[in-house]
Amino acid sequence: MSGAGGLAWRALHALLRALLCLQRALLACLRGRAAAAAATSCALLAPAARALGFREARAAWRRRGPARGAAARGRQRWRADGRALRKLPVHVGLVVTEEEPSYADMASLVVWCMAVGISYVSVYDHNGIFKRNNARLMDEILKQQQELLGLDCSKYSVEFANHDKTGQVLNCQSALKVLSSEDEKADIVKAAQNFCQLVAQQQRTHSDLDVNMLDNLLSSTNGFPDPDLVLKFGPVDSTLGFLPWHIRLTEIISLPSHLNISYEDFFSALHHYAACEQRWGK
Amino acid sequence: MSWIREGELTIIERFCANIIKAGPMPKHVAFIMDGNRRYAQKCHVERQQGHSQGFDKLAQTLRWCLNLGIREVTVYAFSIENFKRSKEEVDGLMDLARQKFSRLLEEQENLKKHGVCIRVLGDLPLLPVDIQELIAQAVLATRNYNKCFLNVCFAYTSRHEISNAVREMAWGVEQGLLEPRHPIHAWCFSQSCGQNIPFGTCVKLSFSSR
Hints:
The complex is a heterodimer.
Chain A: H1 3-32, H2 36-44, H3 46-52, H4 54-64, H5 71-84, E1 91-96, H6 103-116, E2 120-125, H7 129-132, H8 134-149, E3 158-160, E4 174-179, H9 181-200, H10 211-217, E5 229-233, E6 251-255, H11 263-275
Parallel strand pairs in A: 1-2, 1-5, 2-4, 3-4, 5-6
Helix pairs in contact in A: 6-8
Chain B: H1 11-21, E1 28-32, H2 36-42, H3 47-67, E2 72-79, H4 87-106, H5 108-114, E3 116-121, H6 129-141, E4 148-156, H7 158-174, H8 186-192, E5 201-204
Parallel strand pairs in B: 1-2, 1-5, 2-4, 3-4
Helix pairs in contact in B: 2-3, 3-4, 4-6
């Protein structure tokens, strides 16, 4: 870029970014108004609060909802929240487009999904960070499950269903899959190769293949229904390859970030989903 | 109304276009034509009028794309799922399609002038035969143009397109043109789906958030 046109473009770009930041700051301010009184009193007590580690506890509460001691009250609240919605998604996809994913925040989201009664959860980032560090995510989820839902976790057991294991989603309240960009596209390519092999062996003809057959040949979401809702976190306006075959009718809600996400933000997205009109092409 | 609205940009539009063109530009933009019925409701007109005005706005948008040097545009005009709508609405949309594809054939000089290659993607046998014929004529008449590309998705769903691509590969194996052990890459799908360049930007023309 050079010349007056380039200079004008840069100026326009900088102005748009400034306006976007201002908009985000205003939205954050409006959300914070409800807690403004608490924030003010906390600010006054800031020195003592810092000494007691209150700020960290407040950030943890904001992220995790009720504190450890109120787990029983929290469980009832979350289940009631889920039942109060006009419709609850059966399968939620949590898609992170940010470069640095947070295991603690993702674990919170998974546990909240379980707590409100969502049966299937998929976690996805296109770099495959969560998938490569599956064990670390699992540990964080189990830790938060215990912390947020109390010691009696049996009602809220989560089954980690990797895509190469089948039949493990039965008899569980919630099932979780951790996916990466290799899963779905590679799955479609593999299904295509398998079908072509059958054609080469004259067990099938090309005209046998239709949408239903290809759907049956795909395995990346074995046992999971198509996602009803995708919560997309981050500034990228794309689902970056998350289950392209399965999200044809999925409601996609964008949130600015999964970092330090609060239960209120999560529930607000569920509320938005419950209120949306889905016409399925009609 | 022509597919690509004639007329030059105003001074302000030209100024804005020059600024925008100075920065990175997408090479391929897709438009999802959504919201015609809500627009009709808002303006207290018939749904058919909403669809017709939706097309008019598309024509204006295609002119903007031409001016901005965007070489490939894909338009999602009608989904297979839309056949679930009332017979009256579907018939109205088919009549609009007849009108517009006929108009396209009348504008061959204009298409030649801008070098526009028309491609129509979808499960075309689902459409009335006369519309299939009009589409075939439009595609054949413009097949050699290559300055820019207009892909119209009509009777389309992504699942049908992906399945179609796999079926074509299987046909290649049946004909001995492909070996099943040849690696099939994701790239093959985009070629089978008839697109030159992957999307840079997808624009949904409506108020809803999906």
